[in-house]
Each structure stands twice: as C-alpha cells, then as structure tokens.
Write a structure and sequence with these properties.
The protein has helices at about 5-15, 50-60, 90-100, 120-130, 140-145, 145-150, 165-170, 185-200, 205, 210-230, 240-250, 260-270, 275-285, 300-305, 330-345, 380-395, 425-429, and strands at about 40, 70-75, 105-110, 130-135, 155-160, 255, 290-295, 310-315, 345-350, 355-365, 365-375, 400-405, 410-415, 415-425. The chain is of the alpha/beta class.
C-alpha cells in the first residue's frame, strides 16, 4: 500500500473534512476518554452510523481539550484503500504521526469489515492500550457474533438503525409533549406518522421531497445490498434465486416466510433453488440488516427451527419497492412495531396455536408480554384479535397484553380480563 496515498487521506481528514448538519440520535453517548472497550456500531448501510461517528467526534472537539490531530478517522470503503491489508496498519499509524505531528488518541474505523483480518488488527491495537477505538460495520454477524467470540470482554455493541419515529419528528422539527398530544396539534404527529410508516426512516430518504425520489434512493440501497453486501461478500452463484428471495420478502413482510412454497415456485420456473439455499439466503439478508425473522415461540430449539419464520423488513420504506398492488395497512403497522422491538433489542417470537398472536416478547427465560397489532378494532375483528391475544397469554401465563392500532386508545374488559388498546404512534414515542 502506498504511503503517499495514506498520507493524502489523512491530510484530507485533518484539513478538508467538513461535518454535515447532524441530527442528534437516540443512541448511547459513551464518554470515550474513560472507556476501555472498543465501541462497535452495527446497523444497515445508510442508517447513520458514520454520522453518529461524526457526532461523537464533534462532541470531543467541542470539549476544547482535543483537536483533529488527536483523532484518526479512516473510511475503509474509500476506493483508494482497496489494497489496504492488516499488514499496512503500522504504515497507517506512522503516516498519521508524520502528518499530524503526534500519535492519535482516538481511532475511528468506518465499515471495518472491508479490512481483511480486521479482528486481529483491533485486538492488537486494543492490547497496546494506547487508543480509544470506535468502529462501524454493516454486518450483524461481523459486529455481534464474531466480535463476541474474538474480542470477548473488550467490546461494547451499539445498534444504529434508520430513524426511530421520535428521531423522525425531531428531524422534521415537530415538537410534542403530553399536553400538545391532547390538542389539534396531534394532527401534525399523525400526519408525520403516516409518512414515516410508508416511507421509512433512512436519513437521506427522509430528506428527499417526492415519493419518486425516495423510491429511487431506496432502489439504490436495495441494489447495494444485493450486489455488494451479499453477492460479493458471500460469493453467491445463484443470483436469480437471491433476487427471488429478496422480492418474495418485499411481498410477504409481516407474514410467515414459506421456504417450501418459494422452492416450488422456483422449480416451476426451472430455477435451482433448494430449501437449504433459500434458508441460507434468508440468513444472509438478516446478517446485512435487510430483514429480521422471528421464530414461532417454543421452549424447544428444535421446534423453533422446524416451524416457518415470520419476517419483517428492517425499514418500512422498502415496501415502496413491493410489487403488491393492494396496500395492507395492518401489515405495515405490524412491521413498524416489529422494527421498534428489534431496535430495542427485544427477544421476540410469534404465537400460533388454535389462534394467533402477532408478537411475544421474552425476558429472561419466559415470555413476558403479548402484543396484537391491527389497523383498527371493529365489531368483526375485535373478538378475533382479543382471543388470539388471550390464548397466548393463557398458554404462557403472561399477565401483560396489549393491542396496538393506528389511532385508538381505550381499556377493554373482555371476559373479565383487562386489555389496553393503544395507538402505535404513541407507543413508539
């Protein structure tokens, strides 16, 4: 790797880098000076991981104690670093000292998974006990499973997702409190919620003015996930099968993903997609934060594996790319709830017995909460929604049950049992 190229990249960071306007994220605010762990920020591409790094850097600079010469920032997706290897790390730090005149105190590595042998590099740097280290990556396994095994006890994980609804309101300058939500001003919040539900929370997508512009940008993200995050990273050969799995996911969100049904459909079109291949690709889509998949709840791991998974897109904006012509608002609402649970790192499942319950939240070793989601409660569906919730609660001795809707709030007493009904937008806040 050319030392001159590395010096040029460092000089650009020290002299030319201008921070964009930043929206404060609802994420942990670690005191980097005092932390001894590697801070690992995981999440989808374009969710704001780099911007969160900038936020941390700006906080350091605002203290007045630190300057840019104390901070090494490297984006490993910079095309000029395509040939950078673990062996070039010493060259990087030597070059920084030559350009900045001192060794860095803080090290920020963006998209670290692009660096071959990244875990050994981080382990070596951490062992030297000289640097405060922050890294980002857009692969769930990279920054959870692999760091957990290779850097056990040395790392703190932070999940960075697209905007939550609270962040979405903050970005759009919509202020609220408990009192304003009781006035006509809540109409602004509801209007924003409808937009958030349909278009999602990717920061750059939120900035776009028209639905067409938003869809085009989401299509670009979709292609990046397809080509760079999965085809290249996992060396996929059956491109048509991966395309089919992704498109099937767009149309079956908030529903059971039938591997058998998709395998039959692929066979009908003479495509070589075995059940195992489809299962593998579904796993890859979870690894790159395109979707999450919840198991049917069972105390038996084998039973959980045997049953279909219920899938949710990790940003509702991707539904703009669906080829389904009929809008299912209830599924969209449920997907938004599932994404928030994922954001809060809840351990979630679905329930299916004689009846169904959308989401079961497990805390510790037992299910603790049952959640149904529907657009609205009507005389036709009220008993169905309640009975599914009640069956799940009875089966697992759950005391806390809630029905989330678009904009209803009340307390129901059904068969002597109290059930809260609450708007999803208020639950998100």
């Amino acid at each position: 790797m050319s030392t001159e190229i590395i010096k040029k990249i460092i000089a650009e960071w020290l002299e030319d880098k201008i921070f964009p306007p930043l929206i404060k994220r609802d994420a942990p605010d670690p005191v980097l000076e005092r932390t001894s762990e590697i801070i690992a920020i995981a999440g989808p591409r374009r969710a704001g991981k780099t911007w969160y790094m900038y936020q941390l850097i700006q906080d350091l600079l605002a203290e007045g104690k630190w300057s840019r010469e104390d901070i090494l920032f490297v984006d490993f997706e910079d095309y000029r670093l395509a040939d950078f290897t673990a062996a070039d790390t010493d060259v990087l730090f030597t070059a920084f000292q030559q350009v900045a005149g001192k060794a860095p105190t803080f090290v920020f590595f963006d998209e670290i998974q692009q660096l071959p042998g990244w875990s050994r590099v981080l382990r070596t740097l951490h062992n030297q006990n000289r640097y405060k280290i922050v890294v980002t990556g857009s692969n769930a396994g990279l920054l959870e499973r692999e760091i957990a095994t290779e850097l056990r006890g040395r790392c703190r994980n932070i999940l960075m997702m697209p905007f939550s609804f609270r962040e979405f309101l903050r970005f759009n300058g919509i202020l609220y409190d408990e009192r304003t939500l009781l006035t006509p001003a809540r109409g602004k919040v509801l209007k924003a919620f409808e937009q958030y539900l349909k278009e999602g929370g990717f920061p750059e997508v939120v900035k776009k003015e028209t639905v067409l512009e938003k869809r085009e940008l989401l299509q670009d993200y979709y292609r990046t996930i397809y080509y760079r995050d999965i085809l290249e990273r996992y060396n996929i050969k059956a491109k048509a099968v991966l395309d089919a799995v992704m498109r099937y996911s767009l149309n079956t969100f908030s529903d059971l993903f039938s591997i058998s049904m998709l395998a039959k459909e692929l066979k009908r079109h003479k495509l070589p997609g075995s059940k195992q291949t489809i299962s593998n690709y579904l796993g890859y889509l979870q690894q790159v934060f395109f979707l999450t998949a919840y198991d049917k709840f069972s105390y038996s791991p084998r039973q959980r594996m045997m049953n279909p998974k219920k899938i949710y897109l990790l940003d509702t904006g991707f539904t703009l790319l669906s080829t389904e012509f009929s809008e299912n608002r209830g599924k969209l609402l449920e997907n938004a709830v599932a994404v928030e649970m994922f954001r809060q790192r809840m351990e979630c499942f679905y329930y299916k017995g004689r009846r169904e319950c959308d989401l079961i939240i497990k805390e510790g070793t037992r299910p603790k909460k049952a959640v149904q989601v529907c657009w609205e409660l009507t005389p036709k569906n009220e008993q169905r929604e309640y009975k599914g919730l009640r069956e799940a609660m009875d089966t697992f001795s759950i005391e806390d049950g809630i029905i989330l809707t678009y904009d209803e709030e009340k307390e129901l007493i059904l068969n002597g049992v109290k059930v809260w009904v609450m708007p999803v937008w208020k639950w998100l806040l």
